[in-house]
Design goal:
Blueprint (H helix, E strand, L loop, with lengths): L2 H12 L1 H5 L4 E11 L8 E14 L4 H14 L2 H4 L1 H6 L1 E7 L5 E18 L2 E7 L13 E4 L2 E5 L3
Antiparallel strand pairs: 1-2, 2-4, 3-4, 4-5, 6-7
Amino acid sequence: MLKPQQLRQKLLDSVPLLQAHPDSLTLLTDSGRIVSTLAASLSFEYHYRLNVAIAAFSGEMDGVIVPILDWLRVNQPDLMATKEKQRDGFTFQIHPVSDTTYDIAIVLQLSERVRVTRDGTALYIEHVAESPPPQDDARPLQLYAHGRLISEYGA
């Protein structure tokens, strides 16, 4: 599975507090299942819940949510496309630790397609990317909250 590491990198690149304290970010998968059919190919999909935990966070919650939405737009756009997936595809909880810090628990319902092809007696595995976003979808480089720059990152 590739998406957990990709999201980890997006958050580390986008959230300055995580850059300073990368050990406060934990990603765990659970409730995983494989979806496959009796088709001629052994291609399949991973379906799983990704738990994103950020310990003792003291920044703007928006500074975490917006980079995740930006990542989802490219890597799991179906979470934004239907009412059902909007309802339970991206959930969160906040747990106060002190007056200025809180733990964040985010749950994302993700999937990844894997194409398996045969060439003679060999099998080849390829992780299939999501359909690309529209060409006029400009990628943000800066994130502001309350008129203040809180993050700068690349596409």
